[in-house]
Protein 1
Amino acid sequence: MNKARNTKVDILNAALPLVRKLGFESVSIANLAKEVGMSKSGLFAHFHSKEKMHVMILDHASVDFTQNVVMPALKSKRGLPRLKKILSNWVGWLGSSSEGACPFVAASIEYDQKEGLVKERLQFHLGSLIKAISRSVDHCIEEGHFDKGSDSNQIAFEIYSFVIGESIYRKTLGHKSSNKILTESLNRLYARSK
Amino acid sequence: MNKARNTKVDILNAALPLVRKLGFESVSIANLAKEVGMSKSGLFAHFHSKEKMHVMILDHASVDFTQNVVMPALKSKRGLPRLKKILSNWVGWLGSSSEGACPFVAASIEYDQKEGLVKERLQFHLGSLIKAISRSVDHCIEEGHFDKGSDSNQIAFEIYSFVIGESIYRKTLGHKSSNKILTESLNRLYARSK
DNA sequence: TGATAAAACGAACGATCGTGCTATTATTGA
DNA sequence: TCAATAATAGCACGATCGTTCGTTTTATCA
């Protein structure tokens, strides 16, 4: 039961870039099996169904986000420095290696109207992500980096929107200075009511 | 050659809600044919390939956007009133009847990394959409509704991001007051440097 | 109305999909 | 090392996909 967990991680690591490139529904068991050099049935045995596979890919994306975006930022000082670090990590994560879209946005598009395990899990993970941003904004307010009366949910919404917007500008439109525009938007936001 | 155009419009009208519900790749020829009550081959004859069908659905979405979002707003006064009207029409369009995601965002996710006719067309349409917003912001600057030094591209980016963000909040997260949050964000933006 | 053309259909193709089986490896622990 | 067990492969199935082709139905217009 050791070997299994290893290859499962290998599979999920291979799945994430595929999801970001092709979307969830295009990452089939057959497709993914070829990618990792396994038989269809061998890979299938790890997940027991396509839906459960997609759920676990989503879970894996969430772990990946936490490890590579949130956790490294915990070394930065609580408040604005940490929030800024989270955001730069986030943008880096979205633009990293494999390219492609944000896995949560991809799932958003494909499972909005499809009830099932994937949609439920997506709601949980995306909700957690936004709650994490909101909490980080709260720290900024507590530390006096944002105005006392600021609404952290409001600010978290705007931050999330900007990050997703930048991703679309860069990936779809091929916008050259999307990062500069994002930075400008965030700077305006940081400077709010101070 | 009259009948053909009529059924083609019928097909595209049926396709748009499906795309918004399921994404592009899930709208298959077989699927769509069943939806409109035609045979696969009968429907196929209208498009000659699946890719061309997806391109025409995208074109149709663009026409739909122009007719239902941009054009009705032209009756409003040039400048901020018109921009506000475009935005409320836009949000209404995204939340209208069929529900589902923004077709351009759906295409964004699915065709970012897939070269071909669909991606090319998407770049054109999404670029046009954002240019239209930016132009409307320029009018606001000219009319003195926004500060002279405002950057219309910057503001257009933020507006676009907010609209997409609201859509994800509402559709995926089921956020109750997403519209209120969006309104607050836009009001802050309208009030900028005045 | 009847000839001509357009539009829609039905059947079939090869490909790919998810998912059961059973058999065959590879890994593990005494 | 050797039995027990877990992991993987091979194969087959029904479904669905895009596409082709020949036929039939429907619309057009002189």
Protein 2
Amino acid sequence: MGNEGRLGRLNSLLRRRGVVLPSYEIYGGVSGLIDYGPVGARIKRRVIDAWIDHWSSIGGVVEVDSPTITPKPVLVASGHVDEFNDHMSECSSCNAVFRSDHLLKDVHENPDSLKAPELDKMIAQSAIACPSCGKSEWGDASPMNLMFPTRIGATRGGRDAYMRPETAQGMFMLYPALFRHFRQKLPFGAMQTGKGFRNEISPRQGMIRLREFNMAELEYFIDPEDPPTPDLGEWGSSVSLLPDPEGPHAGEHSLTFSEALDSGIVKHPTVAWFLALTWEFLVHVGVNPERIRFRQHASTEMAHYADDCWDCELSGEHGWVEAVGIANRTCHDLLSHEEHSGSKLLRGWRQFDSPRTETRDVLAPKGAVIGPAFKDEAGAVTKALSELTEIPDSLPFVLHLADGSKVEITGEMVTRKNEEVTLHGEYFTPHVIEPAFGIDRIIWHILDHGYSEIEKEGGEYTILGLKQTVAPFDVVTLPLFDKDGMGDLARRISSRIDSLPGIQGDMDSSRSIGRRYARADEIGVPWAITVDHASLEDGTVTVRRRDDQAQVRTEVESLLSHLSSGSVGDLF
RNA sequence: GCGAGUGUAGUGUAGCGGUUAUCACCCCACGUUGCCAACGUGGGAACCCGGGUUCAAAUCCCGGCACUCGCACCA
């Protein structure tokens, strides 16, 4: 935690310099919504670009882009409509509000599954005491859906929909297209960056809990029997791990990713790989490695879809904050979408090493008998016969149809056969490992970790120590004075800098040179180049390094090539 | 959502019934300076929103919104 007032000064800086500001401020503002200003939007752009680059580099991963408006059935299948419908009960005596299911923790095994009337009944029957005042006078449980509802269609009618609470469902919807794109071979991944929406009850803590936020998610589809097991030796650093507090490894451990997997703390090799890749990304964009830890969810805390879940937490002015969730979602989503939609396209194909021949008894239907006997139901009967897993020893027998009804099958209707089939492979529902990044929370910690208040010549001085990869500008060009042609030369140099691919410069000619260095330092510009009288004579400029204010004189051409190759530091 | 506190230029603040609304930083122009928030002159910029009380409200009261803290919530 920082010293007293640091948080306030950092927030002031972010507002003053157009990094992050409250939204709609002239109309009073809205809690949980923020704007990225001209400086912040550039930082955000670069963090997202870095994220896409990072995950692209592991191969077999593509970017997709889906709508934020999501039809209700999609979110019913994913479980969000139910899971997001927590109920709240209010104490009529002291007005305190609690989650209804939490009140029933001790009297019901799975209170989360109860409907509102059942909750009310059980709270009354068990005479649950208010944790706040001890009385037992409860109002009715009322639903609290954290999703933003909307409707598709401007006229009457239309379909119920919600703003997406996560981008992940978009990737699941695209699974068939992805499977085709990757020529029907697992593993592969799809990633997406974009907005997610959660109607938080009480957003707090600036950019930590937002109602509309930026997320970046990767869904990595694997064959659960053949998960990728990359070599983790590449990551030699030890990291802080907090395994399940109810499990065998409870307590804080400092281990390499490889050790964490070998010791069984991380259960899944692909999850371990993603923990390492997540750590690498965060450090790459400027998060302080000492302020990163991975915390395993207790089984009781697990999201409805997850099997094993790790949070990557970052420490800053708001304490330890979950910034990335890495979950093994198993086959939950694809299977549930298959069940709800009836689609058969949400599967993977596992080729056998050699074809397998299976023989099995079947009862082959005789269409000529079954058709007239069952008429409209004949199709369902035929289907049920083909799906029989156990062939009855004697006929007639009672067959259960898919709709629950029963029919009697007699000897004339079927032929008992011994069928031989050759199987070259089998269908299965892929499992999904998902790293989900909260971009705003990561940006906050980049800013927090980069913000330093130092003493300079007796005065207070502020530097935002952003890595060049996420700095709002790579370099600022400063004419020592905007006269004698120095301003014109500076503008020409600045324009050449801007034309370098991937490099963005800024220019500042207003007021004293020291003030301009300070302004650039404050928003994290790593390099400043100064055009002075000598520049007019010999085409050299001075390059100043933000972090130690060291200066070196160099040719403009040399500077431009070092900027292009990202090696300005080599000039010093 | 509950309780308490706080809302004054871009930022930090003074004013607490009657002021041309204070000060500093800031921003702009000109001059000066000629490599680390220098200086001079001039200029710019604010009482969260809506009601009420009062001759008069930034100031008192009520409601809303926002922020901070505590409780609750946060897949």
